[in-house]
Design a protein that fits this description.
CATH architecture of the largest domain: Sandwich
Number of helices: 0
Number of domains: 2
Shape: flat
Order of helices and strands: EEEEEEEEEEEEEEE
CATH superfamily of the largest domain: Immunoglobulins
Helix content: under 10%
């Protein structure tokens, strides 16, 4: 008949949601072996497993909440763990550094230091706060407008004027990291 429409087909809903990143990634060194453990990721469907990387290269896929890497030479390695779901969606990787043949293990990666929200209005949150020794916030001319040695996850910035600032973070390991901060 003229004007009639026949629709045939199916609606297929694809899972596009990534799992959450594995939590509390930790490393312990036993001789030339690094043992990694982490908390389970969550997903809107099912977490199928975890991808383990060493210095950015995939070295294993596991379905457990741990992995071991053995036969390592002396040196510092960065390990990453990302969750993957049954649809192939991959989470952001959690990372940890481990030093074989030395005494140092960082339980969180200082290189992945983040200040958020950014832009901020009332407060900023610092990840890796337990590894931080001090924080300074300076204006674009370098004048320090906030300095603190008592570190918490949340720092009040509501008294700062709108503009661009630099957040200088000194870690317990003596490493210094600077991040740009916008106050709105």
């Amino acid at each position: 008949m003229v004007g009639d429409t026949l629709w045939v087909g199916a609606v297929i809903l694809a899972d596009i949601q990534k799992p959450t990143a594995p939590g509390n990634l930790a490393a312990s060194v036993d001789g030339s072996t690094v043992n990694l453990t982490w908390d389970a990721s969550t997903d809107n469907a099912t977490v199928a497993g975890y991808i383990v990387t060493q210095d950015g290269t995939k070295i294993d896929s596991v379905t457990t909440l741990s992995a071991s890497v053995s036969g390592l030479a002396a040196g510092t390695y960065t390990f990453g763990v990302a969750a993957i779901d049954n649809s192939g969606n991959k989470s952001t990787a959690s990372t940890v550094e481990a030093t074989v043949g030395g005494n140092s293990i960082n339980t969180a990666s200082e290189q992945q230091f983040i200040v958020f929200p950014n832009p901020a209005a009332n407060y900023i949150i610092l990840n890796n706060a337990k590894l931080i020794k001090s924080v300074e916030i300076a204006d674009v001319l370098g004048k320090v407008v906030l300095s603190t040695n008592s570190i918490s996850d949340k720092i009040d910035v509501s008294h700062l004027n709108k503009g661009i600032y630099l957040v200088r973070v000194s870690f317990i390991s003596s490493k210094l990291v600077t991040e740009k901060l916008i106050i709105k």
